Amino acid sequence: MALPLILAQGLVKRYHNRTVVDGIDFTVHAGECFGMLGPNGAGKTTTMRMLTGLTPRDGGELTLFQHFTDPASSELHRLMGVVPQEDNLDDDLTVAENILVYGRYFGLPDPIIRTRVEELLDFAQLTERRDHAVRSLSGGMKRRLVIARALVATPGLLILDEPTTGLDPQARHLIWQRLGALKSQGTTLLLTTHYMEEAARLCDRLMIIDQGRILAMGSPLELIRLHVEPEVVEIRTLHPPLDRQAFAHLPGRLEMAGDTLYCHSGDASEIMAGLRGRRDLTCLSRPASLEDVFLKLTGRELRD
Ligand SMILES: Nc1ncnc2c1ncn2[C@@H]1O[C@H](COP(=O)(O)OP(=O)(O)OP(=O)(O)O)[C@@H](O)[C@H]1O
Ligand SMILES: [Mg+2]
């Protein structure tokens, strides 16, 4: 069994008497990619900030790297790279300088940092931009730079808060590929994301949290197997609105969201057979996904 790099027991955070992280327990093992999913305001960033010592916790125990119980310990800084939700690059510096200055903060010798800067620029595909001002970068380039910068001291654990939010598919794929490469080199990853495809691709295990509590934990496939039927038919009408009652005979669990009726079942072909000849409908049959699990557990109402 791999060593637990993060052991969190009963973590609690309150703001103005409101409990936003409500006693959560989880373990992240060396070498795995662990995901934290949850709607807006679920407590993901707050949890990450408690793990990195940026936000003091109001309860619970933390053990990091099997040894440290104070996440603010200076010895941990080199071991844990952090990619915050909001980019916090220094706009007055160039791309290369951002990594360089960060490396000096860790007290690394200059020749080592300079070698590392070149490696990381290459890793982030930013070598050609090395002398450009940060403000001239696209969102995707900035995100890659924040990730590169977090790796300057070669941390064993990388914590990423929404590494790909707002990025186009090309930029997202590049980051997925880079995170995959880090993992295969042995770096442990803890990440949050609102993209279920990202979680399903990258995470060995993940937890879904809401209102500061853990609703489910497991591998993406385990969660799908445990919480939803294996197949889904999405039904839309060419002439909305769709009358849900007219589909009550279908042998599946029906769920209406917006203009779409979702029919969850063990056998989509049975559902499709029941809809044969309905030219007024468009029906899409697909395997169940992590998004189905997420929506089943956290509901479909907006959170903010
Ligand atoms: N400094 C603060 N003061 C008061 N309330 C806060 C503070 N930071 C966070 N909160 C509240 O704590 C709750 C959890 O916030 P958090 O940022 O951890 O959510 P999140 O899961 O990261 O959401 P998102 O997906 O939107 O990033 C929210 O209700 C938020 O408003
Ligand atoms: Mg957040």
What does this structure look like?
The protein is α/β, with parallel strands linked by helices and 304 residues long. It folds into 2 domains: 4-219, Rossmann fold (3-Layer(aba) Sandwich); 229-287, Alpha-Beta Plaits (2-Layer Sandwich), CATH 3.30.70. It contains 9 helices and 13 strands. The protein has helices at residues 44-51, 95-105, 110-123, 139-150, 169-184, 196-202, 220-227, 268-274, 290-298; strands at residues 4-15, 18-29, 33-37, 59-64, 80-83, 157-161, 188-192, 205-210, 213-218, 231-237, 253-257, 260-265, 281-287. The strands form 3 sheets. The protein has a 6-stranded mixed β-sheet with strand order 5-6-7-3-8-9, with helices on both faces. A 4-stranded antiparallel β-sheet has the order 11-12-10-13, with helices on one face. Helix 7 crosses helix 9. The longest helix has 16 residues, at 169-184. It starts with a strand and ends in a 6-residue tail after the last helix. Bound molecules: adenosine-5'-triphosphate (ATP) and magnesium ion. The site of magnesium ion (MG) has 4 residues, from helix 1.
